[in-house]
Amino acid sequence: MEIPVIDLKGLAGGDEERERTMAQLHEACKAWGFFWVENHGVEAALMEEVKSFVYRHYDEHLEKKFYASDLAKNLHLNKDDGAELLAGCISTNLGLAGAAGVVDAFAPPFVGTKFAMYPPCPRPDLVWGLRAHTDAGGIILLLQDDAVGGLEFHRGGREWVPVGPTRRGRLFVNIGDQVEVLSGGAYKSVVHRVAAGAEGRRLSVATFYNPGPDAVIAPATAAAPYPGPYRYGDYLDYYQGTKFGDKAARFQAVKKLFS
């Protein structure tokens, strides 16, 4: 099963090419909730520099600490700009404008980056690199490892879809809970996880385009069965204790607590 690939170069083309690209993006958001993007404007040299920095930091400061941890011992014993462009396109595809649109609703947005290194695991059958969850925020851009996989998305309640290593400078994109709420469920945040692996270490550099903590989120359609209006900071506080729980139950709890 091929994960959709969106060529963002089409957004700068003629009307027909832009319309085709927007339609492809809409279908990927609606039917999948995750996709690859290419020709995104992030220079290959910068992406390589970021990956090199994370590898150096891990080698110099974290590797020995991890293997000295009780978890590792027990396993052995037991054998930015691109985000905002996508936000505008998503708003257009959903017919949202002004305060209802993603960019305005998230204002002032928070853009942050999380670096993660998953070391090779001697007993991948015993642990997960990261348990199944959805992301709390808005739009997530992932610079994936170009050699080692492990990321898996649950598509449509049917099957786990593996996301292979990065190819040809692509970035991986997925939708978070706040876009699902804003869209009234037209676009879904998708459950995903990271499998532990025995073959090599895996690099992950995730950039999050999220609402600011005081941004007020609400579904564009009042009749939608979603919480809102609520302050994103309140949602995030509740999410911390329910990240690995059922998303629908979390939405309902937020609706009772904060809406």
From TrEMBL:
Presence of keyword DNA-binding: no
What are the UniProt keywords, alphabetically? Iron, Metal-binding, Oxidoreductase
Q: Which SUPFAM superfamilies match?
A: Clavaminate synthase-like
Q: Which PROSITE patterns match?
A: FE2OG_OXY
Q: List residues of the Fe2OG dioxygenase domain.
A: 109-211
Q: Which InterPro entries match?
A: DIOX_N, IPNS-like_FE2OG_OXY, IPNS-like_sf, Oxoglu/Fe-dep_dioxygenase_dom, Plant_2OG-oxidoreductases
The protein's superkingdom reads: Eukaryota
Q: Which family does it belong to?
A: Belongs to the iron/ascorbate-dependent oxidoreductase family.
Which protein, by its recorded name, is this? Fe2OG dioxygenase domain-containing protein
Please name the source species: Oryza nivara (Indian wild rice)
